[in-house]
Write a structure and sequence with these properties.
alpha+beta; 16 strands; DNA-binding
Amino acid sequence: MAGELIGLAITDKGVVALLEPGTTGRVVDIREVARIEAEDSPRWVWWNKSTARQLVEANIRPGRCWDLSATHRLIFGGGNSGPEQIWARLHELDATTIPTRAPVNLFSLAVDSGDPDEPVGPDGHLRPEWVEGEWSNTAHRALRWAELAVVAQQLQVPLVHSEATVFSESACELLCAEMEVVGLPFELGVGESIVAGFVGPRPTTAEEANAELARRDAEVIQHLPTGSTFDLRSPDQVKSLLRRVGIEVPDTRAWRLEALRDAHPIVEPLLAWRRAERILTTFGFQWIDDNIATNLSGHSRLHGSWSGSDGAAGRMTATVGLHNMPAELRPAIAAEPGHVFVRADLGQIEPRILAAVAGDPKLAAASQEDDMYAPVATQLRVERDIAKVAVLGAMYGQTTGKGAEALRGLEREYPIAMGFLAAADRSAQGSHDLRTYGGRLVRMGSTNSNEVSERDARSQAAARGRYGRNAMVQGAAAEFFKTWAVLMRARGRTLNAQIVLCLHDELLIHVPEQNGPDAAALLDRCLQEAAHRWAPRDQAGNQPVRFVSDTSIISRWSEAK
DNA sequence: CCCATGACGAG
DNA sequence: AGCTCGTCATGGGT
């Protein structure tokens, strides 16, 4: 039956343990999973993304799952957790008492802590040995592990605030597994030449590398008296270097030096040095060698790991710089032969989300426009850019600058939205946890460790307030984005449309060239469906907030916008 | 060796 | 505006 829950655990040797409802479970070949998926489309239950990855690696792409880890992060907030933490929370056990495997010695061997074939120890916690992988040693144990997953799922059900969010966040873990396995198309030659443009050609020996380093340092140091030695990698030394030429700065951040370009001829080469250093250390040849794999047909892809939600507000995160690649590298992200990218980003997502989650009808009315800042500006009787800064400032907790005055206009014209933000701010200031529209707990950890001055305490509270009001918008926006993304993942299967990058409000989809237009149209339909499924409706059942995207079909990421 | 901090890229 | 994230560097501490 579609949507039926089936517990699933796959050992590292590929043994598949299935726990279907009302059965004692069975051990099967992975092809059986593919058959069940095709015929019944169940909702698979598993501990975390690692199972999703095993399936994707076997070329099985399930439609639905209940990911215990993703759901745990929704219910309880915070970042990634292992089975032992999930289990402990569901049984209201103190996380600090979770046992860890003691080093193997005579003493630890002497302690008898019950039946090692039973995953739950006498203290009620999962045994560390099981958590660390011993569940995978035998088919019998794998069955127990799948069974425990179903037990945990049943315990999560009553704690869930929105089942729809559980489903989309779980599906997002599947999407993450896929993005990890398939990678981001990356044209090696183009990437290498971009890097070389910043840091010089790829060195073949350590001497060459050192010479290039010295050459780049000299471009900056030449503006100082001969014999000067400063380590440009040390902010402290850069500060004293600048003091030497008569520039006094509290820090040496780029935006501050930008303003001092004309103060001394050393500033410009210093900024250039910094840009090159960023490429060299973070996005250089080493990065390419470490993270880009070339397949048998000679095409290269960048592989990182993805998390469907990590950190505070539940945005996706990614490693190896997938979320902060310098724009200069985007020409290297190229569709493979016979393919195109469909790229789309959500327009003005945060104010639209605010209108929706706050239920502000007037702001919702403004969202009907392609540019919703225009009607807001009219209401406030200010310039459009002022209105924009004011709205963003309200969501981020701006306290100074131009937006501050227009803020009073916002309070007057959009009291519901502003009241929503103020409530989040107050709650966070008081260290009270928040919950996003989709039901994610945003923890306000009271980290006020030592005694601090009255002044510091106030500024920390204000920072918490800003964090809280932002988390309610950013968090809900992340949920909405993921709903959109996983709908496209599901609906795009028949077009062979593969999502290869998620960037907070932007999707990059790799698709056979002939399917590009269909995929682009589908992506827009998925946006409307996401709005319909996710966003709050008014009393009449109408969806009052309009969401828009900018969609294009391109060959290289750099062609966008 | 861990940890805090500065710096910087992206949204 | 000020918010999130990951990554790499130095420099302090153990």
